[in-house]
Structure formats: structure tokens, C-alpha cells
Write a structure and sequence with these properties.
Layout (H helix, E strand, L loop, with lengths): L13 H45 L3 E5 L5 E4 L1 H7 L3 H4 L4 H4 L6 H11 L3 E9 L5 E12 L5 E10 L1 H46 L8 H25 L7 E3 L1 H11 L1 H6 L2 E6 L7 E3 L1 H18 L5 E13 L5 E10 L6 H4 L17 H11 L3 E6 L5 E8 L2 H7 L1
Parallel strand pairs: 7-9
Antiparallel strand pairs: 1-2, 1-5, 3-4, 4-5, 6-8, 9-10, 10-12, 11-12
Length: about 400
């Protein structure tokens, strides 16, 4: 039997192999080029995303982006601060959960989606994460693609709290100015008769035949006339429009002087003083005598708030680099905090109203006079108080020219 073997040889021509190698090299080059392009596009996309995030973060207004179903897609930093919620807490939630009725903001978004056009509300409000009701202006604009299909809504909110505060400050200043004119007229008309009444009572007492039994009553007359004279002095101070003699003032020295002068009163009502001074707080622009009057009044108020129970009066000074209350300028800040019973909510809004007082025997002029002095310095007075948790007064004053230059 003959053994036959068949050998099959397969071979490609050199030309075909070279062609395949060339195509392979070309494909590899193309692939490398596509990878470079993809990396470039990815970098551009990342840079664009970073720019978009920076743009949203730099906006002072709150921006909330929603999908066509009214659910939150993205928010900026200002929205987190305004709402008191983080981005993760808001993402994916429907708008009506963030702004439940009766807040009109959810309706504003739904109206924009339904009607396909922008809507605005310039006197809206929202309830922040801390439960505080905030006035806002709101605008809702439709987001559409190139073919007009709705892709969502952008809701822009502007906090109007500071605007409302400034409006109230202007109204209050107008009221104080009108009352000041009236108070000055009344004070001048009352002071002269009081001088006569006091002099008559003293003359009666000096008479040898004046009954001893009646001296008690003339003493009451003189005492009450003196009290009325003090009220007249307060009225004239309140009505006074003398411009302050501005110079560089050391806040730490001023508040310490006020505490030293009020020390007997503080000891008498068993109030311990805690000093928390910033040794580097810059000088402020002010009239030292008139600012001392403000701090004396606030320290005295704190002591009287703790009368009969004792407590702790904390006085702090510090520097605030950007104070919206002082027109966006740097400011020196004094905080005077007591551990008294606090001020009821219904009284807090009237504290700076002339002749309103919560104290027995008070004239209701101390705080209005203090506010007027601070406002004449271009500053502001703020109050923070909760029933049962004490009261803190904050006085903000613009820095002196030298201090501003030193701070750059």
C-alpha cells in the first residue's frame, strides 16, 4: 500500500500583507487621533462644567434648575444658603416640597411650564430651613432646546430681607425726624414752667412759718420736677441734630469706660461681666462722647434686664470685613449680650419707637436716641432676642480712614 501525503500550502502575496499592515497602521493612527480628540473634548467639557459651576457659584442670587417635571436638577451655593439646605437635600425633590403652600413659588414654576413663557413675582416669600420667613423676588424662565422643546425651568430668587430692612430704616428715620421737631418744641415749652414750679416749692420750704408736715409734699414736687427735667433733657437730646465730631475712636476703650462707669449698678444687681475684646479691632470713625452714651445705655439696659435675678453680661468687640449694614464697608462691631428673660416678639419690633418702653419708670427714649446716634455715624444697631434666652445688641460702625487704609 502506497503512503500518499498531500501537503496544502497557503500563502499570501507580499503585496497583500503589506496592504493589510498599512491599513492596520492607519487604523491605529486614526484610533490614537480619536483618543486624543476625545481627551481634548473631555477636557473642554470638564472646563466648561467647571466654568458653569463657577458662574453659578459666583451669583449672589439663588438659582434653582428644574426638569420638565418640576424636580430639582441643580442649585447654586446662594440657593443652599437661602434655603438652609444642601444640594443633596434638594436634588430630585419636586418644587412643591421645597416651597409648600401658601408660598407662591411652586405655582410660579408650574405656570411657566404650562404656558411656556417666563413669569415673575416681585413680592413673594419663602420659609427657609431654619423656619424663618424671608421676602424674595422670583423669576421663572423656560429652558428650551434649538427645536423649541421644553428642557426645564430656571428659578432665580433674590433675598429682599436687607432691602426691607433699609426701607424700614428710612421710614423710621422719617418718623424720628418728625417726632424730633415736635419733641424739641414741647421740651422748650415745658422747661420754663418747670423751673418756676421748682423754685416756688423751694421758696415755700424756706419760709420759717412753713408747716413741717407739708415739707413731705414739697419734696415730692421737687423730686418729680427733677424727673421731668431729666425727661426734657432726653427730649432735647433726641431732637438734637448736631453733627457728630468725627475722629478715630478705640472701641475697646469706649466699651470698657462704659462698663467702668456702670460698675456700681452692675454689682448692685449681681451681674458678672465677661469681656471678650479683640485686641486687634481697628479704630472706628466716631464722636467718642456720643458713642459712649450709646454703650452706657446698652450696658444699663442689660443690667436692668437681669435685675432681681442676677446673671452675666458679655461684651465682645470684633472686626467685620464686609458689613452690608454699613454699606458694604468694613466695620467695627460691639456686641452686648445679657442672660435676662429676653424680649417678647411683639415688643421687639417697637423697641426703637420713641416713648415705647417695657420698663417701669422708663421714658422710652434711650434706644431711639442710641439708634439715632449710631445712624448719624453711618452705622447700624441690630437686636437678637428670644423669650427666655436673653438679648444681644449689635452695634456696627464704619472704620476710621486710617484704619481702612491700614486694612488695604
Amino acid at each position: 500500500m502506497t503512503d500518499r501525503r498531500v501537503t496544502i500550502r497557503t500563502s499570501a502575496s507580499p503585496t497583500a500583507i503589506e496592504r493589510l499592515e498599512a491599513e492596520r497602521a492607519s487604523l491605529l493612527q486614526r484610533l490614537a487621533s480619536l483618543e486624543r480628540e476625545a481627551a481634548g473634548v473631555g477636557a473642554e467639557l470638564q472646563a466648561l462644567r467647571a466654568y458653569y459651576d463657577d458662574l453659578l457659584s459666583s451669583l449672589q442670587d439663588a438659582v434653582i434648575i428644574l426638569d420638565p417635571g418640576g424636580r430639582v436638577v441643580s442649585v447654586n451655593l446662594a440657593a443652599e444658603e437661602l434655603m438652609g439646605l444642601s444640594r443633596s437635600q434638594m436634588s430630585g425633590r419636586p418644587i412643591q416640597e421645597l416651597f409648600p403652600a401658601p408660598a407662591p413659588l411652586a405655582d410660579l414654576v408650574h405656570k411657566t411650564l404650562e404656558q411656556g413663557r417666563s413669569h415673575a413675582h416681585f413680592d413673594a416669600f419663602l420659609v427657609g430651613g431654619n423656619g424663618r420667613r424671608l421676602p424674595v423676588s422670583a423669576s421663572a424662565s423656560l429652558i428650551s432646546d434649538s427645536e423649541g422643546r421644553t428642557r426645564g425651568v430656571v428659578l432665580v430668587l433674590r433675598d429682599l430681607s436687607r432691602v426691607r430692612e433699609l426701607e424700614e430704616q428710612v421710614r423710621r428715620s422719617d418718623r424720628l425726624a418728625a417726632l424730633g421737631v415736635l419733641a424739641a418744641g414741647v421740651a422748650h415749652e415745658v422747661r420754663n414752667p418747670l423751673v418756676g414750679v421748682r423754685a416756688a416749692a423751694q421758696l415755700m420750704e424756706s419760709e420759717p412759718a412753713f408747716p413741717v408736715a407739708l415739707r413731705e409734699f414739697t419734696a415730692v414736687i421737687i423730686r418729680e420736677v427733677d424727673r421731668l427735667n431729666r425727661l426734657v433733657d432726653d427730649l432735647l437730646t433726641f431732637a438734637g441734630r448736631r453733627p457728630p465730631a468725627i475722629a478715630a475712636c478705640d472701641l475697646n476703650r469706649l466699651v470698657d469706660e462704659a462698663l467702668r462707669l456702670e460698675e456700681p449698678r452692675l454689682q448692685a444687681v449681681r451681674v458678672a461681666v465677661v469681656r471678650q475684646y479683640d485686641p486687634a479691632v481697628p479704630s472706628v470713625a466716631g464722636d467718642a462722647d456720643r458713642l459712649l452714651q450709646v454703650f452706657l445705655n446698652l450696658v444699663r439696659n442689660g443690667a436692668e434686664a437681669m435685675q432681681g435675678r442676677g446673671g452675666e453680661l458679655t461684651v465682645r468687640t470684633r472686626f467685620e470685613r464686609l458689613s452690608t449694614q454699613c454699606g458694604g464697608r468694613p466695620a467695627g462691631v460691639v456686641e452686648i449680650a445679657d442672660t435676662g428673660p429676653g424680649i417678647p416678639a411683639e415688643a421687639r419690633g417697637r423697641l426703637f419707637t420713641p416713648f415705647f418702653t417695657t420698663k417701669d419708670g422708663g421714658t422710652g427714649l434711650g434706644l431711639p436716641i442710641s439708634l439715632r446716634i449710631v445712624e448719624e455715624h453711618g452705622g447700624a444697631v441690630e437686636i437678637q432676642s428670644e423669650a427666655g434666652q436673653g438679648t444681644t445688641f449689635r452695634v456696627l460702625l464704619p472704620l476710621s480712614g486710617e484704619a481702612r487704609e491700614a486694612r488695604g
